[in-house]
Protein 1
Amino acid sequence: MSNPHSPAPLAFITGASSGIGQALAARFARSGYRLALVARRTADMQAFADAHGWGPDRCRVYGADVADIQSIVAAGQACLAAQGVPDVVVANAGVSIGMDTRERDDLDVMARTFALNNTGVAATFHPFVAAMAARGSGALVGIASVAAIRGLPGHGAYCASKAAVVAYCESLRGELRGSGVSVVTLLPGYVDTPLTRENRYAMPFLLSPETFADRAFDAIVGGVSYRVIPWQMGVVAKLLRLLPNAWFDRALAGRARKHRQGGGKSDA
C-alpha cells in the first residue's frame, strides 16, 4: 500500500522554456507529478508555471545553461536539495543549427551543438544516477531525433549529435542494467516548435508538441527503451537507412538545407 504522506513523483525536465519541454511539463503535471523545470530563460518558465497555477509545492524553476557542465550539474544538485530525487529526468534541451564545414565559424557551431546536445545530456543525468540507483528506481530520458538515423546535407552537427545521443543512451542503459533505473531514448520526428518553424523543407507527419508529449509520456511510463514518435517517421527513416548510398544521395540532391548561424533556434 502506498504511503498517503509520500510526496508526488517528480519530473526534472530541461529545455522547459518552450516547445517540447513545456508540453512534457504540462503532461507530467496532469498526471500528478511535481516539476523541476530547467532552462536559461527562467522568467519564461516561471510565467508558464504561474499561468498553470503551479505553486512552489508543485513546480520549481532552475536556471542553467545545459552546455555548461557545472551550470547544469549545479541545477541538478539544487533540485536534489530542494525537491528530492526525481522519478523521471528528461534531457530535452537541444539546439538545431545548420552548418557548412567550409566555414570556419561553423566549427564553433558544431562544438556548441555537441556541448549542448551530447555532453549536456550526460551532465543532466549525472547528479541523479547514483541516487536513483541507490533507491532502485527512476527513468533517465534522452531526447534524440529521427535525424539520428541518417545524415542529412547541411545538418552535419545536428545529425551527428543526435546519433550520439542514441549511442550514449544505449551505453548507459547497459551500464544501469539491474539497478532498477531505466534509460529511455525518444526520437521525435517533426514537431511544431521553435526548432522547426523556420525549416525550408517539407515536414511530413508533423505533430503538435502536445501530441508528442502524450505519446512520449506513454513510452516513458510504459518502460519503453527506444521509440520513434510518430512511428510513421520511424518507418521512413529505416527505409532510408536501407537505401544504397548512391540512391540516398540522389534522393536528397537539391534538398533545402537547415539555416546556418543566425537562423537556428534553441530549446535550451
Note: Residues 263-268 have pLDDT under 50 and may be disordered.
Protein 2
Amino acid sequence: MTTLPRSAVFINAAEVAVCTGPARASENADPAGVLHGVAVAVVNGVVEALGPQDDVLAQHPHLERVNCAGRTLTPGFVDSHTHAVFGRYRVEEYALRCTGVPYMEIARRGGGINASVRDLRGRGEDELVEMALPRLDEMLRGGTTTAEVKSGYGLSTESEIKTLRAIRRLNDLQPIELIPTFLGGHEVPPEYRDNRAAYVDLLVEEMIPAVAEAGLARFCDVFMEPGVFGRDETERILRAGLAHGLRPKLHADELEGSGGAELAAELGAASADHLGDISEAGIAALAASSTVATLLPGTLFFLGRPRWAPGRALLDAGATVALATDFNPGSSPTPSMHFILTAGCSRMGMSPAESLRAATAGGAAALELTDGRGTLAPGAPGDLVLWRASSAAEIPYRLAAPIIEGVWKAGERVV
C-alpha cells in the first residue's frame, strides 16, 4: 500500500527523541538526541522543521496539529532483520525445547529451518501474502515503519523467487516499507545433503543471477555457522551476490564463533547479525569497519541461551550497533521491537538511549538507508511513534507494555 504523504505539526510532547546522536553514549553525547519544548513539522510526508514549538507553529500556521499531550515522540522503528514471510509457526518445537531438547537436535530430527522449507514449498504465492499480512500489521502496531524481510525458507530457485515476489507484493499492500534480502544460503536443503557443493553451485550460478535479473532483492545473506555454511562457501556466495549487485549481509557467530564478523568486515558487508559468540577479534574488526553489528536478543532469549551478544563491548569498541527482532517461526516468533529494546538494556548492557538509537537509526544504517530513516531530522521520512510515556527512557522500562498511542508513516496516521 502506498501511503499518501501528509502534513501535520506535532506539538506538546514531553520529549522528542530525534535519534541523531552517536551510537555510544558519552558525557557530552546522547544517542537518542532527546529534546524538550520542540515541535516537529511534517510536510508532504517528510520532516521539514524541528525546533522551539512557537517558532515551528509560526512557520506552519495552517498545518493540522497533533497534540502529543505530554507523551514522548520517537522515530518509527527500523527492524533490520526479519523472516516475516513464512508458512506456519513451529509451536511443537517450542514445546520440545521447553523439555530441554536443544535447537540443533530438533533440527537433526527434521525440525528447524528445513521444517519451514517443507511447509513453504507447499504453499502458493497468494497464500504466503495472505499469511504475512496480519504479521506485518502486528509489526506496524508495535511501531515498526520500515523492515527488512528475508527469503530463505524456499531453498530452491522457484520457491526463493516465490518468496521474494510475495515480499514485493506485500510492499504495495500495507504501510511498512519492506527491504528484501535473498537468503538462499539459509541452510542446505535435504535433497542436497549429500552434495553440498552442488547446492552452492546452484546458489551462485542460478539463484543469485535470477534474483538479481528480476530486481527482487537488495541484499544477499548467508547463515555462516558450523554445520551450516563454512567460511569458504559463505565467501563464494556473497562475492557472487556482489558481482550481481546484491550487497552482502551475514548471519554470523550466532551459536558458535566461526569468524563471521571478521569476514563481514573484510567484505564490507552492510551488517553482521546475531553475534552471540563473537570473538574479541571480531569485535575489533567490526569496530574498525563500516559494517553494522546487528544484535537479535529475542532469539537468544527464546532459545534460552546463557550467553548474550556483547552489546556493551561492541559499543565501547566503537562499532555501530543495531537492534532487530529476527521475527521468524522457529527461534524468535516476536514482532515486538519494544521488547527488543528492553532486552538490549537488561541483557546486553546498553542504555535506554543507546537501545532506542540502535532500533531506529542503527537499523537504517544496517540497511544502508541514507534518507534520514530512523531519525526525526529535517529531510527524514515522516515516520513517527507516539508513546504513552513521559520520557524516552521509560519506553524500554515498560517491558512490552501496550503504551503506543499512535504510529505515522510518511505523515499519515496508520495506527
Note: Residues 120 and 365 are 30 Å apart (CA to CA).
Protein 3
Amino acid sequence: MRRSIYKSPAQLRLMLEPGLATADSLDAVRRAAKAGITTLELDTLAERAIQARGGASNFKLEPGYRHTICASVNDEIVHGIPGERVLRPGDILSIDSGAILDGWNGDAALTMVLDDGERPDLVAERRALSDVTEESLWQGIAALSRASHLNEVGDAIEAYILSRGDYGILTDYIGHGIGRRMHEAPPVFNYSVRQKGPEVRPGLVVAIEPMVVAGSADTYVRDDGWTVATEDGSAAAHWEHSVAVHKDGIWVLTAHDGGAAGLKQFGITPVRPA
C-alpha cells in the first residue's frame, strides 16, 4: 500500500523536536564560522548541538556518509564533505544539517559570507546571492501557506529569483517531503513545472530548499563522489527549512520562532501544531 504523504496531528507534534535540534545545530555553526576554523570543527559543533537535545545526526544514516553536516564553500553548492579545509575571508559557506529524534527527522540549511575587509565588492556580491536565495525560500514558504497545490511553491521561488537578476536555479537538485525518513515524497521543485503537484492540506510536511548560483546552473560531482560544484566556478548559495501544514496554518519546524520573522513581511503568522 502506498504510504500517505500526509501526517496526523500527533505525528506533526513529534516532528517539532527534531526540527529544533536541527535549528540548534545551524545556530552553533553560525556562531562559530569565521576565518581560520575548519569545516570539520564546525561539524563537531553541529553534532554536539543535536546531541544536547537528545537527537542524532540523520546525515550519518545516509550510506557512505560519516558527518553531521554538509559544508559547501564558494563554487560548491551542496553535499560538501567537512574536513581540514580552513575557511578564509570572503568565503561563501553553505551548511546543510539534519537531526533524527524518536524516529522523526528535521532538515535545514543556511548560507553565510565571511567578512573580508580587502575585498568588499566580492563580499557584497556574495551576500546579495545569499540574500536572494534566502528570500526566495521565504517566498516559497509564504506560497505554501496559501497554495492549493504544492508546485505553486516552485512558481513563487522562480519568479522571485528571476526578478532579482541573472541568477541560475539548480534543477538537478530539489526539495522533498520529510517525516520518518529524511527524504520522502513528494518532490518540491524550486522552479515552475507543468504539473500541479499534490494537494496542499493538513499533514503535508516538506523541506523547501532553493539552490542558486551566480552563473551557469551546470554542475558536476567532484571525485569524492558527494560534492556538487558549479562547472564555471561561480559562487553558490543554499537555504532550506522543513515546513508543516496543519489545520490552523503552517509552522516552520526548523526555525525557533516557527518562521515568524521571515513570514511577517507577508502578513502571515505561523501557528504551532497543537
Note: The chain has six helices and 15 strands.
Protein 4
Amino acid sequence: MGQTQKKIALVTGAGSGIGRASALALMKAGFFVVLTGRRVEPLQQTLDQGVAEGGEGLAVPADVSEPESVEALFGRIRNECGRLDLLFNNAGVGAPAVTMDELDVQVWKRTVDINLTGTFLCAREAFRLMKEQQPRGGRIINNGSISAHSPRPLSIAYTATKHAITGLTKSVSLDGRAYDIACGQIDIGNAETPLTKNTSKGRLQPDGSTRPEATMDVSHVANAVVHMASLPLDVNVQFMTVMASKMPFLGRG
C-alpha cells in the first residue's frame, strides 16, 4: 500500500459483530483500517463492504493468541502502512455456561489466551510501534464488557478475563503517558451480534430463571468507537459504557 495520509487503525476480530461494525464505521470516518482475525473469508467480506462504501483497508489474517502471529501482523503494518494511530483490541470469545467445577481447564486457558493474552500481545506491539514512530503516539481502545463490572451467572472464565482487561487498560494508560499513547476501554452490554442472538429470547438470570433482555443495534457501539478514536491525543475517554438501556446491569444479581 505504501504510505498514506489517512490515520491507520487496526481492528482485531474484524470479521463479524462489533469488530466488523467498528471497522466499517472507522473506514467511513476516514481511517485506513487493517482488519485482522483468524478466518480470511469474513475479513475479506468486511473489507469488500468497506471499499464498496468508499473506504480503504487491508485484510491480514492473524491469531491474536499466538505471539509469532501478532508479530507478523505488526510487521505488515510497519512495512506497508508505516505507522499505527489506533488499535481497537476487540477480539474475544465466550465460554460454556457451566459451574466452575465443570469448566474444562483447556476452555479456561483458551478464553484467557484470546481475551487477555491476545489483548496484551496486540497492545504490546502497538505500544512499541507508537512509541517509536514519528509523529510519536497513538490510541489503544480495549473492548471490556459489562462483565468487567458485574458478572453473569456461570461465566467465570469470561468474567475473569474482562476484569483483567480493566487492569490492563489502566496500566497501559498510565505507562503510555510519557509516549503520547492514550488508552481507554469501552464496556458493551447486549449489542446485537451473532454472539448475542439469543438474548432477546432469554438469558439465564441470577435467580435461576431465563428471561428476555433488551438489546441495541451494534451501530451504536461502532459510533462510540469512532468518537473515542477521533479525539486528539491530549483527550481520553478512560472508560465508556454503551448498553441497552433496559438490560439488567445496575442492580444485577
Note: The chain has a mean pLDDT of 92.
